[in-house]
Specification:
201 residues; Pnp Oxidase, Chain A; globular
Length: 201
């Protein structure tokens, strides 16, 4: 059974079981695209977070929350987005996966105001000499993603939530980076890696 941009045999088996192949095909036909619209760009660049799904070379999955100031994810081309990697716990679960398996999924979701979801599946690459490093406060690496499929999802299950304030750890121009308390814990403080040089702003 041939695959489409969106569906493989596993999807098709369940679609056929639940008689949802026709609506699935229609959703792919009408909503799935490979280029970002102006509205997609406004939505993506307005958000202070997204969720990133990756898998290693053996297909073992990982899902990560990525946060930053609105605009930290940028639409940089017709089918390309870019986002920074900030200082973290040093495990490099997501970006380590990307180095051995570039296929990724991103979920952009608004839980305040009008609920909305946008998904982006594509191929990622990680760079330590990307031009965006010079203008992205707090970035130690830049990830660029070439979209294979861009598609909205029904927002019916998104709860109404209110964002009260950004994280105090969000990189800001002219401000020293705050260190999380866990880096001072006895179990970890003797093995904490040094912060990498980043653009200060």
């Amino acid at each position: 059974m041939p695959e489409t941009v969106m569906f493989h045999d596993g999807n098709r088996q369940l679609q056929d079981r639940f008689d949802s192949r026709r609506i699935s095909d229609r959703l792919e036909e009408k909503l799935t695209r490979k280029e970002f619209s102006a509205d997609d760009k406004l939505f993506i660049e307005s958000l202070p977070y997204f969720f990133l799904a990756t898998a290693d070379a053996d297909g073992r999955p990982d899902c990560s929350f990525k946060g930053g100031p609105p605009g930290f994810v940028r639409v940089t081309g017709a089918s390309e987005i870019a986002f920074p990697d900030y200082d973290g716990n040093g495990m490099f679960k997501s970006l380590g996966n990307v180095t051995v398996n570039p296929s990724i999924g991103l979920l952009f979701i608004a839980m305040h105001g009008k609920p909305r979801r946008l998904r982006v599946n594509g191929e990622a690459r990680v760079s330590d000499n990307d031009p965006l490093l010079a203008e992205t406060v707090g970035a130690q690496l830049i990830v660029r993603v070439t979209a294979r499929a861009i598609f909205p999802n029904c927002p019916r299950y998104i709860p109404a939530m209110q964002m009260t304030e950004p994280s105090v750890y969000t990189p800001q121009a002219g401000c020293a980076a705050l260190e999380p308390k866990w880096k001072e814990f006895t179990d970890f403080k003797d093995v904490i890696h040094p912060r990498q040089p980043t653009f200060k702003g």
